[in-house]
What we know:
The complex is a heterotrimer.
Chain A: H1 3-19, H2 22-40, E1 48-54, H3 59-69, E2 74-78, H4 83-91, E3 97-101, H5 105-110, E4 115-122, H6 126-148, E5 157-164, H7 171-202, H8 205-209, H9 215-244, H10 253-277, H11 281-298, H12 311-317, H13 321-335, H14 342-365
Parallel strand pairs in A: 1-2, 1-3
Antiparallel strand pairs in A: 3-4
Chain B: E1 3-13, E2 18-28, E3 32-37, H1 43-51, E4 57-62, E5 65-67, H2 70-73, E6 80-83, H3 97-107, H4 114-127, H5 142-154, E7 160-164, H6 172-189, E8 192-197, E9 208-213, E10 216-221, H7 223-230, E11 234-236, E12 244-247, E13 250-253, H8 266-276, E14 298-309, E15 312-323, E16 327-332, H9 338-346, E17 353-358, E18 361-362, E19 376-379, H10 391-401, H11 406-419, H12 435-447, E20 453-457, H13 465-482, E21 485-489, E22 501-506, E23 509-514, H14 516-522, H15 529-537
Parallel strand pairs in B: 3-8, 3-9, 6-7, 7-8, 16-21, 16-22, 19-20, 20-21
Antiparallel strand pairs in B: 1-2, 1-4, 4-5, 9-10, 11-13, 12-13, 14-15, 14-17, 17-18, 22-23
Helix pairs in contact in B: 3-5, 4-5, 5-6, 7-8, 10-11
Chain C: H1 2-18, H2 20-40, E1 50-54, H3 60-66, E2 77-78, H4 82-90, E3 96-100, H5 104-110, E4 114-121, H6 125-143, E5 149-156, H7 163-194, H8 196-202, H9 207-237, H10 246-270, H11 274-290, H12 303-309, H13 313-327, H14 335-356
Amino acid sequence: MKWRVIKAYIVKELTELIRTRLIVMVYLMPSMILLLFGYGIRMEVTHARTIILDYDQSHFSHMLTEKFEHSKYFDAQIGLMSEAQALHQIKKAKADMILIIPASFQKRLLHGQKSEIGLFIDGAFPTRATTMESYVQGVVLQASQEAENIALKKGMIVINNRNLFNQAMRDENAMVPGLIGLVLLVAPAILAALLIVKEKEKGTIFNFYASPVGKGEFLIAKLAPAFLLHSLNIFILFLWATYLFEVPFRGSFWLYWLSSELYIFISLGIGMLISVVTRSQIAAVVMTVIVTLLPGFLYSGIILPISAMDKASYIEAHFFPIMYYNHILYDTFLISQGIASEKIVLYLGVLFLYAVILLGLGTLFLKKELR
Amino acid sequence: MKEQLYVKNVTVQYKGHIGIKNATFSLKGGEIIGLIGADGSGKSSLLHAIAGVERFTGEIIYDDVSYHNPKEAQPLKSKMGLMPQGIGLVLYDTLTVKEHLDFFADIRNIPIDDTFKSYRTKLLHMAGLEDFIDREAGKLSGGMMQKLSLVCTLLHRPKLLILDEPTTGVDPLSRIELWEILDEIRKMEGSIILVSTAYMQEAQKMDHILLFDEGEIIASGSVSALLDSAKAYTYKQTPCEDGCITFDGRTYTRKNINADHVSPTLEGLFLINALQKGKTLTSMQISARQNRVNIPEIVMEAKQMSKYFESFIANEHIDMKLHRGEIVGLLGANGAGKTTFIKMLLGLYPIDEGELYLLGKRIQSGADRRELKSKIGYVSQHFSLYKDMTVGENLIYFATLHALSKQKAAQRIKSYAKALGFSEYLDAFPRDLPLGINQRFSITAALLHEPVILFLDEPTSGVDTIARAQFWEILRQLKQQWGIAILITTHYMSEAEYCDRVVLLKEGKKVADASVAQLHATHPKAKNFEEIFLEYYR
Amino acid sequence: MMRIFWTIVGKELLSFLRSWGLLIVVLYSFTVDVYIAGEGMQIKPRNVGVGYIDNTGGGISQKIISHLHPPEFLPPKRFLSQKELSEAIFNKKILVGIIFDSDFEKAYRKGEKTELNVLLDATAASQSFTTLGYLQNIVLEFSKVDFPVELKSHKLFNQNADNHTFMALSELLSVITMLSILLPAMVFVKEKEEGTWDIMLLMPVDARITILAKSFSQVLIVVAGTMMTVGFVLFGAFDIPMNGSFWAFFLLTFLYSFTSAGLGLFVAAVSKNILQVAQLSMIIMMPMIFLSGAWTPIYAMHPAFQALSMISPLRYYIEGCESIFFRGTDFFDLWHYFAGVLVLGSFLYWYGFRKIGKLF
Lengths: 371, 538, 360
C-alpha cells in the first residue's frame, strides 16, 4: 500500500471534480432534495379554501363562520353565490370545500332539534379531503360545545394525548431526518460509481490496468474523495435540518456523526458494486438511482413507519440499510436514547456489517483487466 | 543479446468472436517491432494480452517470468509501459501537462531526484511540450496529446514498451517527432518496443514486422525479407482476369502470368494473402449522374474568412477558391484549423469575418443556404450514420430527406452498392463492419442527391491502405464523370499526390496554395510531399 | 413535406423499438411502476401497532380495545408497566400506547370526567394524527354523546376517499413528465454526440421540421404509453372515475408532452453529452414535480415557490388532469390549462430552434 499513489489519485480526483464543476452537483443535489421534499410535501393542510354558504345569517351561524375565518387552517370565503356557482368553483379548482348552513339552523337549535350542516369536499386528493373533513368536524364540535355550553355529560371520555418526540406534530420533524437518510444513501453512491466508471468510459482506466498500482490502492484513492466530500454533507444537511426546518436535535451529535460516516461507507460500497457492472457514466447514474432511490424512499420510514408495514414489506425493509440508519437518525434528532438502547447498538453493528460486506464484495469483483 | 519476450500460442477470445488466434513469436531487447494490419485484424488484442490487461490463453514469458493471465503479469507491470489506441485516451482532459507528469510519476512511484528531473526535461524537450506545461490536456492538439501520452508512458523508463497505433490521426510532423522519441529511447534504454500502425511507410522504421489479417499473424520478418518473399507473386501492371489484383501499378497473382516481375510494396503482402483466401478487390465504377446540372466555373470562394473562439484564433483571413472538377486537399497539423474552416463553409459555425460565395451566391445567413443544401454533400470525421439502423435503412432515410422518390432512392442505392461493392452489407448494422466499409456508406449517403460540391473531413483516417486507395479511386471517378468539386482534409501526405491542388494551413493561417507539382518545383530538395509539408512547418 | 416529417418520425420510432433497454424502462414505467404506486403507497394508517396498559381489571377498557381491529390496527399488545410500554414506543415497536388508569372505569361509571391517556409516536406525524382521529371517533361513539349539530359531509367525486386512484394518477403524471423530458433530450443529445445532427442540419429540410418531427415521435411514445396506462392500470386495475371528457385529457396530455419535449430540447441544446443531460434534467425535474401542486396545494406554498411554479408546465397539467378525472370540469373551464402549457411550450421551441436548429 503506497501512500504516494493514493495521494496522487486523490489530488487528481479533486482537481478534476472542481474543474469539471461536478463538485457543484455534489453539494447542490443533496441540499436541493432536502429542501424540495422538506418544503414541497406537506401532510397537514393549511389555508383550505372554504366557501361558506350561510343561509341562516343568525347569531349562531355567525359564531360558527367566525371560527373558520379565524383559523389558519381555513381561508374562509363567506359566499354570496348559489350552490351551483360554488360547485363550479370547485370544478375549476378554485375552492376546496363548501360548507352549507341551512336557513333554519338557529331556530332548530333553539328548539333543541337536530340541525344538519352540509359539507362538500373536493375529493380529488383523498388524503387531504379526509384531513380537511376532520378539521371541520373539530371546529363544528368545538363551536357547538361553546354554543350550548353543555356541561360534560355522563360517561364522556376525553382523550388526553401526549405526542411523544414531536409535540406539535410538525411535518418537518417527521420528515426531514428521514430525508437525510435517503440523501446520504443516493448521493455518495452516485459519486463513487461515477469516479470509477468515468475512467472506464474515457479509457484512462488503462493507467490503472497497465501500471503496478494495486487494487486496494486504487479503491482507497477512488473512494476517499467521495467519502471526504460527502462527509461535509453530513454537517450541511444537519444545519439545514436544525436551522431552516427547525427540527430539534435532542440526541448525541457524536452518534449522529459516526453512524452517518459509517452509512456513507455503505453507500460507497453500493456505488462501487455498480461501477463493476456498468461501463458508461449514464448507465451508472441510472442504475444507482434505481437501486437506491426507490427502495430508500419506501423503506425510509418517511411515508410509512416500518412497524406499520405489511408482512412482506416489513421483511423486505430489513434488507435495506436505510431502515437501520434511519432508526438511529430519528433517535438522535427526536428521541435521544442513544447507545443506551440495545437496539441502537445492534443497528450500528448491522450497519458496520453492511459496510464491510459491500466494500469487500466491491474489492472482490473489481478486476484489473478489460471487460 | 538473447530473446527476452516469448509469446506462445496466445489467443484472445471475446463473446462471439476471436480477437487474435494462436500468436507465436519472440523478440530481443532493443528491437522495434511493428504490428501492421487493418482495423479489427487483432493487433490491439495481442498488445493488450502482452500488457497484461486482457485475459488470454497460451503463455507469455517476459524477463524469465511466465504469465498466463493479467494477475500473473502484475509484478512485471513496473517494467512495462502501455499506450492504448485512441488519441489522448489515457489523458485527463482537465489536468495540465505538468499535473499529468506529477500524477504518472506518483503512481509509478518514481523517485523525484535529479536524474528523473533531467530525464523529464529531456522528454518534454523532445516532445516539444516545454512551452505548454500549464495547458490542460483537453486543450492540446491531437498530435500534442499523443506526444504527452507517450511521455507519460515513458516516465518510468519501461523496458517493454507497448504502443497501440500511436500515430493514427496524427499529423506528419508530430508523427516524425514521435518516431524520433522512440528511436532515442530504444538507444538509451535498450527497450523492446512493440508498435502497431496503420501507416505502411512506418514499417521501414521497424526491425521486424508482424502482418495481421482477420485475427491471425499471416507473416513476420524484416521488411526486406518479407518483400523478397512476395516478389514471386508480383508482376508489372498487366491486364489479367480472375485471381489477380492490380494495385498501385503492380499486378499480384498466385498464377503464373506472362509478365516481368517487379518489387512489391508492403500492401502487396496483404493482397497476396487475400488472393490466397480466394478474394479479389472490388473494382469501383461510378455511373454517370442522372441530373444534368450547370456547374459554375468557381463553385466556392472564401475571402478573408476568420473564426475566433474567445481569444483563440482558429482561422485567420483565409482566401480560397474551389473550381469545377477539382480536388483540393486541405492539409495541416492537428489543430491548424482545417475542421473549423470546413464547418464554417458549411454553416455549422458562424463566420466571424470575411465573405463566402457558394455557387456564385453570397452567403450571409442560414437563409441563403436553403436552396444550396441540395447541391452540397458532406462526410464528417466520424462517418455519421445512425448506429441503430442498418446500412440500407440509413441510406433510404437520407434519400427520403433529400426528397428522392421511393423508386429512385432504391435504384440509386442499389447502383451505388454495386459500384462500391457493399451490396452484401445492406442489412448489417454499421457498428459491426470495419471502418473501411463504413467509409463507403458515408460517401454514398453524401452522394445520393448528386451534389456538385463535396466536403470531406478526414474521411480516410484510421482506414487501411487498400480501402483508402479504393476510396481515392471513387473520388477520381466522381471528379471525371460528374465534374464536381471536392474539398478534402487528410493526414496522409501520400494522398496529397491525388489532389489537383493543396492548401496548407498552419496555426489558422494559409501558408501555401498550389498544385503538388508546383510545390515540388519550389522545393527542389524535397523527395516527396511529406518533406515539403515539413519544410513549411519547421 | 409531410412525407419527410413522417419519415423522420418513423425512423425515431424504429430506433426506439430497437433499443431494448429503453423500451423496457418505458414499458415498466407506464405499467408496473404506476401500478405499484397506486397499490402500495398508502398513507392511511394500516397495521398500526398499538400497546396498552390496563390497570382497571377489564370491562370498558377491553371494549374500547376491541374496537381497534385490522386492517387499521394490529391486534393490540398488552404491557404490564408504563416503562415497558414506553420502551416499546421508543424502540418503534408500536406507534400508539393507551393507558387505562386504575380509576378509569370507576370515574366512567360515576359519570365523572374520564381521561384516557394516549401516547403517540409523533415521529410519524401523519399516521399518529389520523390514528388519533380514529380513537376520537371510537370514544365518541362509545360515549354516545348526542350533539345537536350534525355534520353531513360528502366527498365530491370520490366518496370513499379511495387513495389508489389518486396515487396512481399522480405517479402517471410524474412518469409522463420524466419520460417526455428525458426521451427527446436523449434523442437530440445523442445526435449531437455522434455528429449526425450536423448532417441533419445540412439536409434540404427545414431544421424546425426535423426538430418538431423528432419531438413528435417521442411525444407519440409517451402518449401511447399514457393511453396504455389509462386503459390497463387506471381503468383496469383501479377503476378510476372519468368524470370529465376523455378527449380533453388526451389533448391536454398531448400538448403537455410536447411542451415537456420542448424542455428536453432545451436541456439537450445546452448540454454537451448525455451525462450533462441527466444532471440538468434532474435539476429541472425535481423542483417541477415537487412544486407542481400534486403533494401540497400551490396556494399553501412559500410565495417564492408559488411564483416559481408559474413557469412549470406540470402545474397546469396536474390541476387540469385532476379536474378532468375527478372534478369533471367542463372543457371550456379548462382553457387556462391549455393556454399555460401552450405558452410555455412555444417559448421552449423558439429557444430550441434558435440554439440548435439553424445554420449560419
